[in-house]
Amino acid sequence: MTAREAYDQLRTHHREAVLFGSMGALMGWDQRVMMPKNGSKFRAEQMATLAGFLHDKETDPRLGDWLARCEGSELTTDPTSVEAVNIRWWRREFDQATKIPKSLAVEMARVTSLAEDEWAESRAQSDFKRFEPWLSQIVDLTKQAAECLGYEDEPYDALLDRFEPGMTAKEIERLFQPLREYTPKLVQRIQDAPKKPNTSILNRHFPVQDQVQFSREAAAALGFDFDSGRLDPTVHPFACRVTPGDTRITTRYYEDQFNPSFFGTIHETGHALYEMGLLEDHFGEPMGESVSLGIHESQSRMWENVVARSRPFWEKFFPIAQQRFSALSDVSLDDFVFAVNAVKPSAIRVEADEVTYNLHIMLRFELEVALIRGDIAARDMAEAWKDKFETYMGFRPPNDKEGALQDVHWSGGMIGYFPTYSLGNLYGAMFYNQALEDLGDLDSMYRRGEFSPLLDWLRKKIHNQGCRYDAKKLVEHVTGKPLSPQPLIDYMEAKFSALYGL
Amino acid sequence: MTAREAYDQLRTHHREAVLFGSMGALMGWDQRVMMPKNGSKFRAEQMATLAGFLHDKETDPRLGDWLARCEGSELTTDPTSVEAVNIRWWRREFDQATKIPKSLAVEMARVTSLAEDEWAESRAQSDFKRFEPWLSQIVDLTKQAAECLGYEDEPYDALLDRFEPGMTAKEIERLFQPLREYTPKLVQRIQDAPKKPNTSILNRHFPVQDQVQFSREAAAALGFDFDSGRLDPTVHPFACRVTPGDTRITTRYYEDQFNPSFFGTIHETGHALYEMGLLEDHFGEPMGESVSLGIHESQSRMWENVVARSRPFWEKFFPIAQQRFSALSDVSLDDFVFAVNAVKPSAIRVEADEVTYNLHIMLRFELEVALIRGDIAARDMAEAWKDKFETYMGFRPPNDKEGALQDVHWSGGMIGYFPTYSLGNLYGAMFYNQALEDLGDLDSMYRRGEFSPLLDWLRKKIHNQGCRYDAKKLVEHVTGKPLSPQPLIDYMEAKFSALYGL
């Protein structure tokens, strides 16, 4: 078998796998958006059956043979060629799938499935003690998984690598350090500032039907193609690509809150625009897939915070909002822009503003690194959380529900996931600076409702690249500079100094 | 391997197959109800991939070994035991799947896929000549399939058997004969009657949102469980069970027509109630599946025509309808019931009333039997249709679009499907007579809004029986009488004599 023949086998194999995987994506979307209540029992059975089938496909020993035939062949001479990229990532996926023994994978699935229910119950009762043995088990199993996956420096790196390939704990510590020093000071300056936003204007009456229409209009203006996607209401919003040509986003509506549905929709639109920009011809290949959670988050947060919370954006959209919502008729543009950018420390991550959000992430990152390093035990997590939170935010969360129990991630075994949120902010700030340099006066474009120059730039520079470069290399490739937290800090300093008159 | 072990292998195998099949059901629903336009290309690829996978599962040679081990064993001693029923039908499915050579299945899939598009185009242009070569090819391929499948008497029986197991052309001819004699005479008497319904009251203004609510209320009252299903709008309505606990129906709304959404919803509710009544514990086994299209249709037509077009039903629901639709405020109950039961020959089957509907079916049945027997050629179909239509209905369809091109079935290779619609009416009349005998005064129950006695009876007698008896035997088992068209004729005679004062 020639390398080319082996490569074609790999393509065919993965094309079929991704088609089956996309059935799972549809089932997942349907489950959270459409499925009637009593469908859940058999939906779980469908999902488990599909997962078993896909696991067998991912660990098919022929993959190892085909990969070995390709590696070192003429197909991998140029490491940025389509073939080389695909072979490299298929190898990575195959190794990840085969390194974890089936017994461990099954045990992990069993424990996390139970732990998610236990977590929900523990959170409802705000009772960390109840959840503690589950967290403890999950940490043990996760450490075992890290040993199987392998790492150069420390076990946490193996966990992180699942979500942000190539990133390490040490590197993140280095990147987050300046942010950790800067952010609490900025929050303090904001709290001391005499200027305060009037956020009550965002808690007036906003009829749901009007929110639906306004969110759709904005998403479409940014480039979301409703012939290639949908927007529906759900409880926990998410974005999901079923297949090329079919990317679906979700949001939630509150009659007395402007922010959640609007900025939630824009956030998910950012994710969707990335998915919509992946290369259809490479569906089923790493060249046609998103490269990391951090890069994904850079897209959602850039559109949500940098674009849709900017004054130029609202110079275009505020008059439209005022036509639609009588509640905004007596509000000025400046007051509105100030309100949607209000900074205020709060206990819950998903409700956090653009500035304090990174503190929530750094807190979680530090705690989970300590958990895996063995520096703190699962049983001490609730108090460790409160202590660290107080240091960062200046107050103590009132209970575990608003403390260590607020997020689902750990109960699902997703240790190593959190830092990708803030990495997204770092990446996004660097990308955006480069876009400004390449495209010029983006603000004037927004004032005219023109978002396609930015989108086209992101398509070309990031979306169409698929997995050609890992996240760090992609940043360097796009911006010509090494990854750094400084652009994010500069962005926040400029934006919030102006808003709060610091 | 013991027979019991082989049986367990069969169960496991089919359970997995039905779970994958149910992913296809969800994709099919989604495609017609939710999917954005540009999702169609990859949806087709998903469906083709799944179909290939399922075909391999259905023709897995191990099935033949397992079946051989079970057949004649102690598991099949009682032919109505769960095991015997499942083994019998699994054998049937395996034989059907393996008797058609892959080359023929692939060619059939290719031709029908193209033919469906060609049919749509030909229909749009009302140009039978354009479609004729496709029909000709499909008839040839279908005849080949009939030879592969095998038959006792004539090829058409093999085709019919795919949709109505155990039924034959001769038997249907015998059953339809009295109906063919009776129906045109009834239509003539109705046309000669001095009493005429005022159907214009059904073409007033019915706001879509109110139609949605009213249809939902009625479906729920009949027993459709919205925790185990959904109702959504679509272009070509259908019902589909994704899994137990998840059965979805669809309908379409016209602001100026009362009938399509309301009776369409009740029709699909009838299908859904059958699916909802199948035994969850036997999901993936013939014991937990519907037995034939004719039995399915008996359920949908019974609820639609016998129940929901009856005066007692409207004694309960007409006051509710009047509250919801101001267009009905000046309409009397009698006029309304007369209007929803109006009989009038028309060219299009899907718009036909309860009486002329069977003429549409008999026409198609006779034409397709003649096609397969070689008594008429595909090229003569358009004229043959018009001639026969004129004989049955008293006027000639104005064009092919309203003639031989109106239905999708033949272009999809579904020759043998049409008679199941009228068989459903025959079965339904017999079932309903038995229900009246067993349950007493159903009319009074409807006046009180009580439909669960009928539903519970159908559950026990029909739905829970799965494939235990084939359609004809099920009728005999439930009613103690052999299948006959007389109950349907008696029902129509009584109902329409009273309505039209014949």
Task: Write structural notes for this entry.
The structure is a homodimer of 502-residue chains. The first copy, chain A, is built from 20 helices and three strands. With 502 residues, chain A is mainly alpha-helical. Chain A has a three-stranded mixed beta sheet, sandwiched between helices. In chain A, helix 6 crosses helix 7, helix 8 runs antiparallel to helix 14 and helix 9 runs parallel beside helix 10. Chain A is globular, with a radius of gyration of 23 Å. In chain A, 42% of the residues are buried. The model of chain A has no long low-confidence stretch (mean pLDDT 97). At the A-B interface, helix 1 and helix 2 of A face helix 1 and helix 2 of B.
- Going across the biggest sheet of chain A, name each strand in turn: 1-3-2
Q: What summary fits the major beta sheet of chain A?
A: 3 strands, mixed
Low-confidence stretches of chain A: none
Mean pLDDT of chain A: 97
Radius of gyration of chain A: 23 Å
Order of helical and strand elements of chain A? HHHHHHHHHEEEHHHHHHHHHHH
Counting helices, strands and paired strands, the structural category of chain A is: mainly alpha
Q: Name the assembly state.
A: homodimer
Strand segment tally of chain A: 3
